[in-house]
Design brief:
The chain is of the alpha/beta class. The protein folds into 2 domains: about 140 residues, NusB-like (N-utilizing Substance Protein B Homolog, Chain A, Orthogonal Bundle), CATH 1.10.940; about 200 residues, 3-Layer(aba) Sandwich (Rossmann fold), CATH 3.40.50. Helices cover about 50% and strands about 15% of the residues. The protein is built from 21 helices and 11 strands. The strands form 2 sheets. Strands 7-6-5-8-9-11-10 form a 7-stranded mixed β-sheet, sandwiched between helices. Strands 2-3-1-4 form a 4-stranded antiparallel β-sheet, covered by helices on one side. Strand 5, helix 15 and strand 6 form a beta-alpha-beta unit. The longest helix is centred in the N-terminal third of the chain and has 16 residues. Bound molecules: S-adenosylmethionine. The site of S-adenosylmethionine has 17 residues, from helix 15.
Length: about 425
């Protein structure tokens, strides 16, 4: 059996990603689920896999300069890994070349060795060649995304967004005040740093122990916006319509002091079981978990019997363009037609959920997309179709402005 190493795991992940078209985080968690690697090696495997995905076009540009013409796909993956180490994160040359050559099939090893050594010799020329390349190569993003961001936000913000997406994300966690107050949390986890702008959140590079104890939940501070706009009160009845894996459900329960009812609904059974585990660990006691797809008829009794709700959160499925720093392969999945397609689904979900709101009640629609079709566009469409709804307030978080993940949330009130 071949001994697993960080580079071997990263290569296997790249090959699976290319062949199976599965989600990158799922692929790497599956490969790392066998605890055969030391924790530093696990971290390096993730760094290599995500790093190559973030820099695909750039690495292929260099490969084309070093080895013009058609390439065997397995060879390309090995070269991508090697060049990422040598030219992007600047791993020690000897280790990067030797260990990467070892990854290749025997008959390809001399090609890998020659190409990587050539890259070391031509390092400055390869870096200089980038200057004249368009942003889609320099920042490894699909051209259509850069085009639409330049149109929506301007050329400089679009570049800043690409740079943001290529940076390693910071781990933020929300202190779970159902279990622990911020002072105790900070005393218990010495490395945690409270965010000056939001004292419910900390920066935490090794959150595992705090997570296992239910003392925190890993989420970006921008995810709190939707819950705060909803302003749930203790004792109320809330519907969290797209709830899994439960980050916002848990925060709603905290804002309600574990008093009242939160119906946590989602269509995905697997994600609901993760939600169930999360809520148990976080000591959420007021959630009722229901599986339902809002694009299907017949709202289940468990939901309709609790209606009308005081407040509803619709944290809709979306294109995820605000969280590309964390979801590194999202950029390669998006198509130009996605945004209008998502808008149709989002409007459909709101149409199915809004009748469950009481008269005078409020609902918050939120996404982690920064695209106007999925945000303002959805709101315009819903307001046009439903004269009984009135927009109260909205908030948008843009990574290149706010330095957090992208998010959008709007609060609407049902007047009749
Ligand atoms: C953005 S995620 C929700 C994240 C969650 N609110 C949290 O904070 O952890 C969107 C969720 O909507 C669910 N979803 C997508 N389409 C749905 C539908 N038609 N009906 C119900 N849930 C749906 C997905 O399974 C996914 O879990």
């Amino acid at each position: 059996m071949v001994h697993p190493t960080a580079r071997r795991v990263a290569l296997a992940a790249l090959q699976t990603w290319r062949e199976k078209k599965d989600f990158a985080d799922r692929i790497i968690s599956r490969l790392l689920s066998e605890p055969a690697l030391a924790s530093a090696d696990r971290a390096f495997a993730i760094e290599l896999f995500y790093g190559v995905l973030r820099n695909l076009t750039l690495l292929d540009f260099w490969i084309a300069l070093l080895r013009p013409g058609q390439l065997n796909l397995d060879l390309r993956d090995v070269l991508r890994l090697g060049l990422y180490q040598l030219l992007v994160i600047e791993t020690a040359e000897h280790a990067a070349v030797y260990e990467t050559v070892e990854l290749a099939q025997k008959r390809l090893r001399s090609v890998v060795n020659g190409t990587l050594r050539n890259a070391i010799r031509r390092r400055e020329e390869l870096q200089a060649a980038l200057v004249s390349q368009p942003p889609e190569v320099r920042f490894s993003h699909p051209r259509f995304l850069i085009g639409r961001w330049s149109e929506q936000f301007g050329a400089k913000p679009s570049t800043a967004l690409c740079e943001w997406n290529n940076r390693r994300p910071i781990i933020y966690a929300r202190i779970n005040q159902l279990k622990v107050d911020p002072q105790t949390f900070l005393a218990r986890y010495g490395e945690a740093e409270l965010l000056p702008a939001d004292s419910s959140f900390v920066k935490l590079s090794s959150p595992q122990e705090a997570l296992d104890r239910g003392d925190c939940y890993v989420q970006d501070p921008s995810t709190a916006v939707a819950c705060r706009l909803l302003k749930p009160e203790p004792g109320e009845k809330i519907l969290d319509a797209c709830a899994a894996p439960g980050g916002k459900t848990a925060y709603l329960a905290e804002l309600m002091e574990n008093n009242g009812l939160v119906v946590a609904c989602d269509r995905d059974v697997d994600r609901l079981s993760v939600l169930e585990e999360n809520l148990a660990r976080l000591d959420v006691q007021i959630a009722k978990i229901v599986c339902h797809d809002w694009t299907k008829q017949n709202v289940p009794d468990e939901i309709s019997s609790a209606a009308p709700f005081d407040r509803i959160l619709i944290d809709a499925p979306c294109s995820n363009t605000g969280v590309m720093r964390r979801r590194v392969d999202v950029r390669w999945r998006r198509k130009p037609t996605d945004f209008v397609r998502m808008q149709e689904r989002q409007v459909q979900i709101i149409g199915a959920v809004a009748p469950l709101l009481k008269r005078g009640g409020t609902f918050v629609y939120s996404t982690c997309s920064i695209e106007s079709e999925e945000n303002e566009g959805v709101v315009e469409s819903v307001l046009r179709e439903s004269p009984a709804l009135r927009q109260e307030t909205k908030q948008k978080c843009l990574p290149f402005v706010d330095q957090f993940d992208g998010a959008f949330a709007v609060r609407l009130r049902k007047t009749e």
